[in-house]
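Input:
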Amino acid sequence: MDFKEPEHLELLRDTVRRFAERELPRETVRRWDAEDRFPRETFDKLAALGLTGLTVPEKYGGAGRDILGAMVVIEELARHSMVMAVAFIDCACYGGMNIGDVGSEAQKAELLPRIARGEILFAYGLTEPDAASDLASVTTRAMRDGGEVVIDGAKRFCTAAKEAEYIYTLVRSGPAEARYENLSFILVPSDAPGLSMTQIPTMGLRGVPSYDVAFEGVRISAANIVGGEDGWNRGWPMLAGPALDVEKLEVAALGVGAAQAAVEDAWAYAEERIQFGKPIARYQSIRHILADCRARLHAARLVLYQAAWLAGEGLPCGVESSMAKLYATETAKEIALAGQTVMSAYGYATEYDMERYVRDALLLPIIGGTSAIQRNNIANRLKLPR
Amino acid sequence: MDFREADHIRLIRDSLRRFVAAEMPLEAADRWDREDVFPREVVTKLAALGVMGLTVPDTYGGQGRDIPATMAVIEELSKRSLAVAVPYIMCACYGGMNILDSGSEEQKAAYLPRLAQGEMFFAYGLTEPDAGADLAAVRTRAARDGDRIVINGAKRFCTGAEHADFIYALVRSGPEEERYKNLSFVLIPPDAPGVSISRYDAIGMRGAHLNEVIFEDVAIPFANLVGGEAGWNAGWARLAGPALDVEKLEVAAMALGLAEAALEDAWRYAGEREQFGKPISAHQAVRHPLADARTELHAARLVLYHAAWLADRGEPCSAETSMAKLLVCETAEKTILACQRVLGAYGLVRGMPMERYVRDILVFNIAGGSSAIQKNNIANRLGLAR
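Output:
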């Protein structure tokens, strides 16, 4: 075992930290949350650093796929702004990982260079009113009509649908009984006629709005079937492929970054806040909470990096990525709540960031496959009898 | 970065597993526990594998110091029986680590080759009736008398003293007020005149024996001062050195091994036991705690071996070893209790190892620096204001 990080990871961290110092001051990030506004102009500045190319092979203008590097970027961004971290994921991961893994050659040639330049964002159109964990039961229909695909149905909790250029949409492309064999992915431009969006107000991850998206006779060129003609009815293996393993890690990386922010703020507060004549950090009831948080954060980071390393090496990581998702996001939630305990009323007041960390952290065990789904995955993959 | 376990460690694990299957059957482990027997003959056979020398440089007849490999041995032995894991530590770690780090050249030459052969065992003589976590408060006195040292006092919870060749005892070698500056380590043979040893009956870690040791005018040669002349009044630095960092990991490795054994038992039981027409592992109330246990032990294992890797490279690892001790031992306790619940009433009865795991694990958040002390260490080492 060699736990020594490759040097370029520290360079990536430095790059993101300098960007965060310039572009992600606390007041700005707080405003995005309060106004629930997506700051595309700031994302464009991030894109200019070339980081979204971390998932894109060099021949398509990227930096060469570097899963660990991408996770480090997500972690560092999430430490300052969940909004910017999610925007990075929408481009580099939802776009770069999926198109790179399952796009047709034409789609790769067209989209990957733009992803590497950070020009286009992708929203996931997976969840529906009646299909969430059980994604194979989606009912949004796609019918072929000559050179076009016609889509009718509804997607829910479609994060950044309006802000993204494409909705990466899972559709039922044949009879529902065939379940896993009649699913396809379609790249639906977010401005396609027949699409209508209604924002779903949420307590956390504000700044990257979530939408109900209705599809009424939405006509898309068949060229937008992900994977080209071969992709028709081949959606399920695309969903359950390597991009899904990495998707779990993306959420885990959000968790590690969010937890880092929470423990840093709580730590600083405990050192400054004086009660009974000394910093509250000196009381073991506070001190031990902080020590515990550091230990758990350390563990969560190791679990994340181990799984990201496996994914980067192309080794099987279905179990480890589920463990990382489960462990890092549950830890992030615990740490944010612990940080709130340390800051007490200030952890509840909107003039500090802690309450935002809490609101954001509560989302992480839910998205990208809930904790319960990850536990199913782990037990199933490890062949526990059922 | 490379998270794969080194080939030579996998070979060591394989050979340990064969040894455990051949020499440490479950019935024997159960008997050592029930009858509180120190299985000396098994430890002698273990020594023949050469694993005692994993803490000793080859110039002194060992295999070369290899901390991760030492932890792997402890982990594998602990999966079956602490009655063998503890003597291994008494030889390879309490003996090998301390003599190498703190012994004089004469002591190294005299003892390291014998330790590497598994011919000597050291017991720690640290805790006293009034000094547990606060070790600098020890009162056992050492006075120089020509070329002898005369010792008076008492040591408590001195694991394995009655089976050891030396008690590695922390003594007060000057006025108490100087606290850290008048401590020394001496090697006291338990059969020296004036030493009397009695035994505690304890619920866990049975077989290794928890002793109370009284010293009444015990005279030992000055040559038994650890570190030779330079060691007089220099005990504190030796206590807080690298051997202490590794000691935290030894305890963590025992806890990890125990928890892995408990999980393996619970996993198998849940797959075999049928209720309501299907294996209980098919019920999420059982399935999910097992998935959680897998995940948390995965994290604990990474934290342990990361710290062992740091220690092996001679890098500072005081915070990381404390995190490992805290996180692994707390996780192991939680995991074992969850596994006990999976077994239902079978987790309570004699004849199944689960109840022994439960009794044994309770020692580890207490021994080797309690969880509270590790939290203090973490906060202090990470510079939290106080």
